[in-house]
Structure formats: structure tokens, C-alpha cells
Design a protein that fits this description.
- The protein has 7 helices and no strands.
- The protein starts with a helix and ends with a helix.
Length: 198
Amino acid sequence: MSPFSAYLSLGFEHISDIQGYDHMLFIITLCAVYQLREWKKILVLVTAFTIGHSVTLAMSALDIIRINADVVELLIPVTILLTSIYNITQKDKEDHPVFSKAVSGNYILALCFGFIHGMGFSNYFRALLGELESIVLPLFAFNIGLEIGQILIVVCFFAVYWVLSRFFTIRHRDWNLFISGAGAGVSAIMILEKVLAM
């Protein structure tokens, strides 16, 4: 396997690993305010998260930053909880299925919280790089794999939404509340577990 393929696979596995479901939960919660017809906005959202994630990895690989792993492990579920609360508290109109303010805010959340999620993998990524002279190829390949994995998660999420909407009448506001509420509940439990383990 070539170095490019190895890092691409690593990026894909990092985001799709079921044991690291916190990243999946964050992506799903971010997407809760969108409908499938807004796929371009969703793509921008996912890319914003990848950019934030990759900036942190690059800074870590260059030894510009070093993050305490315990703090990062606590901050990751905090990002999910804050995103969930942000989604739930947005006002909407029945005739306007997507909350434009929430959507715009989600771009900022995705970028900023991408920095934090990138920290969760930064120490391991830096160790993998070792003494490599250039981080460009590994970082690029890793982020391509990450992007592919995120898009796959989004596709699966909206496939479930589409199938359910064929059999049931689902108001988008209710869907957002359900997904965001679930994200808030799971992340609150994760935060409590991290705090008690400290």
C-alpha cells in the first residue's frame, strides 16, 4: 500500500470508526437543520469541519501546538452539546423549512469545532508522521479520507430521513428537535463520564 493510500484509509477509518462515534454524532447533529435538497450547503458544512480539523492536525504535526488529551476528550462532547442546543433554540417558521440563521451559524460551528475534533487525533497523527520531512502528502491524503467518510455518514443519515419520510409524515422542525435532542442527551452523558473519570 502506498503512503497516500495508507493515510487516506486512516482518515476514512478515523471518522467512520464506530468506537469513535462522537465524530459521527457531531456530523449528524450539525446536519439536523438541513433538508436533502440543500446538499450544496451540506457539502460546504462538511468541508468547513474538515478544514478546521486539518488546520489543527497541521499545527500539531509541525509541533506548534500540543494539547492535553484529557481536556480534548472532554471538549469533544461539549461541541456536540453546544451544537444541539444551538439547533434546538433556533426560531423557525412553518413555511420556511430551513432555519437560515441556524444554517449560517452551523458553518462557523463546523469550522471552530473542527479545530477541537482535530485535537483529539493530533497526538496520534504526529506520532505516525515520525521524522517525515514533509507533511503535505500525508495530511492531504488523510483529509481526503476524512471527507469521504463524512460524506458517507451524511448520505446514510439523509437516506434514513428519506426512507422514514416515505412512510410517515415528518415535519422538519420535529426531525431537527429529535436528532438534536438525542445529540444533546448522548453528549451530556459523555461529558459526565469524562468529568467523573478526571
